[in-house]
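Q: What does the assembly look like in three dimensions?
Context provided by user:
Components: four
Sequences:
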Amino acid sequence: MRVAVQTDPFDLGAEAAGFAAAAAGAGAVVTFTGIVRPTDTGALQAMEIEHYPGMTERAIAAMMDQARARWGLIDALVIHRHGRLALGEPIMMVATAAAHRAAAFEAAEFLMDYLKSRAPFWKKEITDAGADWVAAREADEDALTRWQAS
Amino acid sequence: MRVAVQTDPFDLGAEAAGFAAAAAGAGAVVTFTGIVRPTDTGALQAMEIEHYPGMTERAIAAMMDQARARWGLIDALVIHRHGRLALGEPIMMVATAAAHRAAAFEAAEFLMDYLKSRAPFWKKEITDAGADWVAAREADEDALTRWQAS
Amino acid sequence: MIDVLYFAWVRERIGLPRERVDSQAATVRDLVAELSAREDRYAAAFADLASLRVALDQDLADFDAPLAGVREVAFFPPMTGG
Amino acid sequence: MIDVLYFAWVRERIGLPRERVDSQAATVRDLVAELSAREDRYAAAFADLASLRVALDQDLADFDAPLAGVREVAFFPPMTGG
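A: Here is the predicted structure of the complete assembly.
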């Protein structure tokens, strides 16, 4: 289990390959990578991500412990960047390893849903027109209820 | 969109990185990798995968077209090996790229569910005790109903 | 003439991967009956149709599907890819 | 003395990322009232508590949580990670 909160870019390929190679006994490895994409409305130039040092690592480690226990994960990885990111740059990555595919997929989605709404990151979009904090979406908050039901 | 059916190993890291780099405009990239793992019951030595050349490529391309249309995918990739695979070797890989995470996750799970039960591959487990064809699991067939409901 | 293909344990039980068959069978089910009448190994392979799948010209079909115009028929167990 | 941290637009509105506050507030809500009484920029930042989140010693809490023993309080908007 590894959490990395960093300004540096990361290499999705190297991280995925290293993670899968280390996950002895895994039958299923899922990765999710989030990338800075053009906004639907304006000309995005860059994304700025602020976070809460200390709490970020703590919150993510707690989510990973929960995911590991709930889905019997063999391993999990979260990398999340902060600072200024250009269009097309990777923002973050989640990887999960499990015996079977359903566990690996569900745990990755669980981690993504919690990272979205429970890890202390805040995104600001820098466009031609100025800079705006990204508003939290109700749909992202609602996504968490899926994991609380069972 | 690329389908590769091959005996050669593939490099998960290089494939994932190349796929993500080419998916211009994607905000979310999901990969799934299936790996030969020790069986629950016996000492697995290797896996042998047979397939139906021609139909395999055709069936996978049809699934990918369906996934692309349904989730507005920017791109998708399926690599599936056949022949003899040793413990720990990658069997197959799916990658999906979309604007948002829900589409990328759902499309990857859809492709996995269909590959499991609708692409003409058959797995044989080679153990100390002999060789046995893997029986299809009812749960894998049931998984398809999830995609037919909506 | 029709190409008939066998995969996985169907192939092993029948003992060959493919053959050309001269058949006037109207449906897949008729073809199965013709083959099963040939030899025990065919009858054994086709004993339980519920455990078999069939593809006509590389598309999944069912056992009542007509064979008119079909060039390639494949028999195999439920698939286990992924 | 308590460390009070501000993030994202809360930080921008108040104009600083953190400060030490000498407060006897019993709950988060009391602390918010004390800060809001100081200056307009605080009042503006805390105008709508429904749009704010609070963490006590780096764990999410709610505005009625007691402050006894707490060393670090952080105010911020709903998170937008991932």
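Follow-up: Residues 35 and 89 of chain B are 6 Å apart (CA to CA).
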